[in-house]
Design brief:
The complex is a heterodimer. By secondary structure, chain A is mostly helical. Chain A contains eleven helices and no strands. Chain A starts with a helix and ends in an 8-residue tail after the last helix. In chain B, helix 7 runs antiparallel to helix 8. In chain B, a hairpin with a 5-residue loop joins strand 3 and strand 4. Chain B has two domains: 135 residues, Glutaredoxin, CATH 3.40.30.10; 139 residues, Serine Threonine Protein Phosphatase 5, Tetratricopeptide repeat (Alpha Horseshoe). Helix content of chain B is 55%, strand content 7%. The N and C termini of chain B lie far apart (68 Å). By secondary structure, chain B is an alpha+beta fold. The relative contact order of chain B is 0.08. Classes of the chains: A mainly alpha, B alpha+beta.
Chain lengths: 262, 336
């Protein structure tokens, strides 16, 4: 990891435009979750937990702050910025890993702030209605929060490492595949549910292998309580994170960054 | 110092780790598909039976219906994935085995009854899906694709909603003993859950008085009065249904209650106030006056969600008055 890039990137994330947009989103999400926590049913608590520790916040925040194509708060062009960085002999993998770790740290910070705000709001609302706010923080939530952050940030680092036109195609393809999965299967928990005899086993295995590349999230509750082989889910998750980082490094290595290109 | 030409090399460790993990992942997937034995079915499904509307044991285990279409191989596969995704979770399987009666209902071209009538009665509109009902077929909850964790929460939610639903169904059957038992259970299991309506204490106290338990009826109303958790600035000046509680506690007269129920564009105040007045008069032995008030409540609304009118119609039937029958569909639409 490169310390200079880490500090510079972190400083860039705290730009006022990011902070302004982030605060609005943060408040909106916290109010929603805080209200959900005060409604005393298992379903609302679970909805608040999914909202706080599920994939939504990691993918939103990481895409907002990491991807220069989407939100470059300093109005710099992608190539110009990277040309400056790579005028120094910095290894591309080091840049990718640093971006990933910086992004993950920032997302975890936002998530922590979000959880604290939600608890604060639920305590205030709970005091009005004499309701004990529901606790959504448990071991599963913490593991899911950290792993979802690392997974989705790796995906966004990979997407943002590409030139803008390719990145747009990959994002659209990803969105389409996720939509297809959500529409047909519902959640990523389908991964270890495909031992079906009615369809060809070859097709099943290949489809599972291919589609699982797009499943970045991690559901620790599903993995721990599954009657099936949980090691497959863990391997798929780890493999995806390393795959995205390797692909990002590969793309960055093949791209050329010169001032003359800008 | 790193040589400029070497900055764009991919580290061998990263590449090796990536390839190794991909091979391991492929091995796990292929092992799971070809060699791993499918886990034993965690749940023993029962065969579907027609709904018995006359059942009165509403607090016994609720029924969990798993509806799926069986017309084509794709639908079969979808149902398998759905079942495996939700019911192979050990915690979900344990909860279903302990607390529900699981029934699997396949909808296909060849079979007709009772699967089709079950789907029609419960208004099943998407497949696969899960419906949870009381033993008499009254719907509690319905859900389709969910993560197993959310489904576990959904099952717990259905268990909380079961007692207030059973109490409501008991009131429609004028089964006061069962209503008291269900309200007691609802309060004990999950006091002030969102499934306990704002008027539940009123109904509970009426049921208790029909069971000649005046002391407890008063205690229930006073507790509701003391422990109401809605802040005053939200309740507003009218603070409905506080006037009904005041009337039942003898603090105001029927005329005063009627006056307080005037601002009522959707007739829900009229339905409740007249039902309360009717039941109170009936308990005092004033049959004719009670029938008059109950009729006003019964006619206030025919909407399926207007419970007070339904309870009033049930009471009128019991008293021998001519009242139109409830549509079965109206009970079941309450899930939407």
């Amino acid at each position: 990891m490169n310390k200079a890039i880490f500090l510079f990137t972190m400083k860039r994330y705290f730009h006022w435009v990011n902070l302004a947009v982030g605060t609005i989103l943060l408040l909106f999400c916290s109010i929603t979750c805080g209200m959900l926590q005060t409604v005393d049913t298992p379903l609302t608590k679970e909805a608040a937990r999914s909202f706080l520790f599920g994939p939504l916040i990691p993918i939103m925040v990481s895409y907002l702050v990491i991807s220069p194509q989407v939100a470059n708060s300093q109005r710099r062009k992608d190539g110009e910025y990277l040309s400056l960085i790579f005028s120094r002999p910095i290894e591309r993998w080091s840049y990718v890993v640093t971006k990933w770790l910086t992004g993950s740290t920032f997302v975890l910070l936002v998530m922590t702030l979000q959880v604290a705000l939600s608890y604060g709001i639920s305590c205030i609302v709970g005091a009005f209605f004499s309701v004990q706010p529901g606790n959504v923080l448990d071991g599963y939530a913490i593991i899911d929060g950290i792993l979802n952050t690392l997974g989705f940030t790796a995906l966004v680092v990979f997407i943002s490492s590409m030139p803008q036109r390719y990145a747009a195609i990959v994002v659209l393809l990803y969105a389409y595949i996720i939509f297809l999965l959500s529409f047909t299967v519902g959640t990523a928990s389908y991964l270890d549910s495909l031992s079906i005899e009615q369809v060809s086993k070859n097709m099943t295995a290949i489809a599972q292998l291919l589609f699982s590349i797009f499943c970045v999230g991690f559901d620790s509750y599903h993995v721990v309580n599954s009657s099936n082989l949980p090691v497959a889910n863990v391997l798929i998750y780890m493999s995806n994170v390393v795959l995205y980082l390797t692909l990002a490094t590969l793309v960055m290595s093949y791209r050329e960054f010169f001032y003359a290109n800008d | 110092m790193i040589e400029p030409g070497r900055t764009n090399l991919i580290p061998k460790t990263l590449l090796g780790l990536c390839i190794a993990l991909f091979i391991m992942r492929a091995s796990a997937v292929f092992y799971g598909t070809y060699f791993q034995k499918a886990p034993a079915k965690a749940i023993t499904w029962q065969q579907p039976k027609p709904i018995d509307r006359s059942r009165r044991d509403l607090l016994s285990k609720p029924t969990l219906y798993f509806f799926y279409e069986d017309y084509s191989p794709l639908q079969k596969v979808t149902a398998e994935v759905f079942e495996s995704m939700l019911f192979q979770n050990r915690e979900v399987a344990r909860l279903v085995k302990d607390e529900f009666i699981p029934v699997k209902v396949a909808i296909n071209t060849s079979n007709s009854e009772p699967a089709k009538s079950l789907a029609n009665t419960l208004g099943v509109y998407q497949y696969p899906s899960i419906y949870i009902t009381l033993p008499n077929g009254k719907s509690i909850h319905q859900v389709s694709w969910q993560s197993d964790r959310m489904f576990h929460a959904f099952l717990n939610d259905a268990l909380i909603a079961r007692a207030p639903k059973a109490a409501g169904a008991a009131l429609e059957n004028l089964d006061w003993a069962l209503a008291c038992e269900a309200y007691e259970l609802a309060f004990k299991e999950h006091a002030y859950s969102p499934y306990s309506g704002i008027c539940d204490e009123i109904y509970w106290s009426i049921a208790l008085r029909h069971q000649n338990n005046e002391a407890k009826a008063k205690q229930v109303l006073e507790r509701e009065w003391k422990e109401r958790r809605i802040p005053e600035f939200i309740r507003g000046k009218e603070d409905w249904p506080k006037p009904c509680i005041d009337y039942l506690l003898g603090k105001i007269t029927a005329e005063e209650l009627e006056k307080k129920a005037t601002l009522d564009p959707h007739s829900y105040k009229k339905a409740l106030s007249q039902y309360v007045i009717g039941e109170n008069l009936l308990l005092q032995g004033k049959r004719d006056e009670a029938i008059k008030a109950l009729k006003l409540s019964a006619e206030a609304s025919k909407a399926y969600y207007m419970h007070d009118s339904k309870y009033a119609r049930a009471q009128l039937r019991q008293l021998g008055e001519k009242v139109e029958d409830e549509k079965e569909e109206s009970d079941l639409r309450s899930i939407y």
